[in-house]
Please model this.
Amino acid sequence: MKIYVSVDMEGISGIFSFEQTGRDKKGSEYEKARHLYTQDANAVVEACKEMGAEKVVVMDGHNGGYNFIIEELHPDGEYITGYSRRTILPGFDKSFDGLILLGYHAMAGTFCGLLDHTQSSKTWFNYFINGKRMGEVGQGAVMAGGLGVPIILVTGDKAVCKEAKQLLGDVETVAVKEGLSRNCARIIAPSKSHQLIKQGVKRAIKRIKDFKPYLIKPPLEVRIEFQNTDTADGYERVGWKRIDGRTVSRIVDSTLKIL
Model:
């Protein structure tokens, strides 16, 4: 059994501010958050190995992909980190049995979604595939589904867990915190979160054959509504079709080209 793990930071245990995520500057709060990020990833690797996974590949997917504390990583995982990636999910293919989305957040505009956004918290407003509004959970589901791989677990705040279930049905979820606003949360101790994450991984792997890939047949219309017109200007210059002042679209022939 092979499991691929895509990690984002906003939904990691103990994270509740953009300062922690390094969005604006990488200061002391971001450095502390890197430890939380690495520890959540380690909890997943440990649980996967306890459940008999032969290979666990963990992709550092936040803000360019250079966030892990390398010296603290669990020795039984394989890790993808670093910049200038040729694909969105490096090393991911149809040979994997399941995809885990660790530390994810709700789509832009979600009420009480902690640090809610879709791709860019500064420039993107809404994202659609074939007219369906989606966030980063949906993007992961479409890309994995195109390769025949299901999402088996999503962790983050309560809002992203609700979003995942609405999109994917009976997927396993683990809520490690609850957003009281975009920048305020009710959290639990990371040590407790790690227990919950491990339990979620084990539940997901026990019923891994129950999960089905999220399938959308290409061609796909991708539409992005930005917060400002200048971002749309830039996308138009590189070939996207201009729909209105803040919106662009394009048709893609593969689920791996939606970003």
